[in-house]
Amino acid sequence: MIYEFNSLKPVIHPTAFIHPLAAVTGDVIIGKDVYVGPGAAIRGDWGRIVIEDGCNVQENCTIHMFPGITITLKESAHIGHGAIVHGANIGKNVLVGMNAVIMDNSEIGDESIVGALSFIKADSVFEKRSLIVGNPAKKIKEVSDEMIAWKTEGTKLYQQLPQECFETLKECEPLRSVEPNRPIASAAYKTWNESKK
After folding, report:
1. CATH of the domain at 29
2. DSSP character for 5?
3. Eight-state DSSP code of residue 172
4. In terms of domain of life, where is this protein from (predicted)?
5. Could you tell me where the DSSP H helices lie in the chain?
6. Is there a domain that residue 183 lies in?
């Protein structure tokens, strides 16, 4: 669902895929190859939201802010399922883990990783390549080259997903039994722990 608000319409690049069950409202600018999943709410009613090329905002995420603020998700930012970004700026190629909460006026430096369920309090600033976890969240170490390579590989899957959705996603009636020789998705990308084995 795409909504105009106070005469401002979202600007969405034609290669970006916004799931029909997501809501994008008002002053929102979305770049190339962005994926926005079902249940995501991106509310540019009180300020501007810029989502740069190659980002993904996954299922049930919320992106919002206090009045008069512009926030940016920089290129290739990866916002995991259920995360909340409220009035914070997310650096280039950052991973925000599932159900993390990032509060107002916070800055997450490029190539940082925010752990799942982390709570980043308002006005927090983290330098690039920070591994951030906890409640309240703290930097526990620097993100290694190996970790950022793993993250980048995962984000590439999401950068391919918009085109796959345009080509193959469609509403359907379910099957009533499993068909013989049903294909299984490839396991080309592995969890962090599996990738280290």
Report:
1. 2.160.10.10
2. B
3. -
4. Bacteria
5. 145-168, 192-195
6. no
- Contacts of range 191-194, beta carbons closer than 8 Å, 24 or more positions apart: 192/147, 192/150
pLDDT at 196: 77
User: In the numeric block, which tokens belong to residue 33?
Assistant: 């190859």
pLDDT tens profile 67-107: 999 999 999 999 999 999 999 999 999 999 999 999 999 99
What whole-number distance in Å separates Cα of residue 63 and Cα of residue 102?
10
The pLDDT, as a whole number, for residue 55 is 98
pLDDT of residue 64: 98
The number of domains in the chain is 1
Token pair in block for residue 155: 């984000």
**Residue 111: inside a domain, yes or no?**
yes
Query: Which domain, by its residues, includes 43?
Result: 2-142
- 195 pLDDT above the threshold of 90: no
